[in-house]
Model the fold of this input.
Amino acid sequence: MMLVNKKMYLVFVTIIILSASIIIYQIQVNQFSHELHIAEDVPIILWWTPFGNDGKLRTCKNYTCYFTKNRTFQYHPKISSFLFYGSNFKINDLPEWKASWGLIHEESPRNNPILVQEETLNLFRYSSTFSRFSDVPLTLVNLPGITELLDKKYFIPTKQKTRLMNTKDLAPLLYIQSDCDTASNRDIYVAELMKYIRVDSYGTCLNNAQFDRRLRENYLEILNSEDFLSFNANYKFTIAFENAVCQDYITEKLWRPLIVGSVPIYYGSPSFKDWLPNNMSAISVLDFKDPKSLASFLYDLSNNETEYNKYLTHKLVDNYEIENQRLKNVLDWSNERSLKEYGDYVNEFECFVCEDIHKINKQERKFVDLKHYDCPLPRHPITNKINHDDWWTMQWIIEKCGAKVLAHHLKNNLTINEANFNKMKIELYTKKQC
Done:
């Protein structure tokens, strides 16, 4: 009898505590709304992972929304959307699932492989990713503009580069990378390439060369400085390999050599040629059967000034007209909206969400899919085959199981316990039920 009374007492106390917590939340929400004078018709958009505007009413065209990172607002009757920055998306720290979640993420999936999976992506209504198909594409976020592609500020003529190779003992190829464990396994390819042609590798990965004192200290913090760009310009070719292979995932690794006038040797987005100034602006690793074939081609090209210069027409031809209409259209779009820095794209994404919430058709089914974040299973960079024993490949597959478990929990409003979540994920993986 005493045991029953004790249980009833504990249940009663729990109910009282939960009720009090909800009341306190409502009081705080009402207080915030009153103090901020949020009109009844103004949707509230909460950055669950603090990233964009906070505590700010924003007008987007003819629509107004209130943006905040204050989680007190998650229970507000006017809460309309939760926004997330991809790298900080944590399965054990999520709000109640709503069909109007938004994702912004310019990084590759190596930071958060669960985002590669369609069942995870389908949880979101809005996206701003590196994909051209996302609502606010970040494909060219690292390219300042056409002016920088054509400008000769850092450009060094081919004859002078050849002279530097002889007088400074420079290799024809430059490689600078200090992230040596990547989903693309890029160092495997570069190590093989180095057997057949000289490569000056200044980063931690495959290091065989040293920066001078100007650049040696904290070079990762000055990648866009004039000294660093001028240094890059000395080389005929720059190895530009991404840390993961995804459609439209293109970083400054491609744009930097194009800006300074070094020919990029590229591995990464299979669709990267869609964004080049012209068809001969860069050299794709995938166009060669192996590193030895690529090395032979680069050796011959390095010793043929006429042929080499064909890859630099955007620098050599006065008043050069960019041939790529897709590239020009996207850069024109970003210029029209004054999207100069990453923060501008964040603001653009916020306004896209705000406008859609006001115009939303409640019957419309819209969700993010694989086109918005298309990163297939990692492949060996030389054989182009999937290695199921590779750590990164296993992560891709395990997180497919994780996405299944996550979607199940969220759509059924179940509490996520991280230990149990991981156990369920591994069980599915072991049984090959992903």
